[in-house]
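Let us practice reading a record.
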Amino acid sequence: MKSIKSVLWFLAVIFLLAVVVQNLSLLTHKEIIRLNLLIKEYQTEPIQLFLYFLGFFLIGLLFSYFYGLVERLKANKTIKNHLETIRKLEEEIKIFRRDKDL
């Protein structure tokens, strides 16, 4: 399984490199971002497209990280509640066993 996973990662990296190399002229093309808010207009300096792609990719990573963080916190709270319930039920079982032995 590890060898298959390694081969798949290798193929993904090769595919990504092929896409980047074949589109290098597009990725190095410079563009300006303009934002018109009717009151004021903003625009950036010319920046290469790969920096835009990288920036939006990193923003997406941050969004997914924080969404996953919220989900993990909810899951940890649920696990904590379940463990507390288990502890209480085990105490009840011990009490019933003591009463049965008497």
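A brief commentary: The mean pLDDT is 90.
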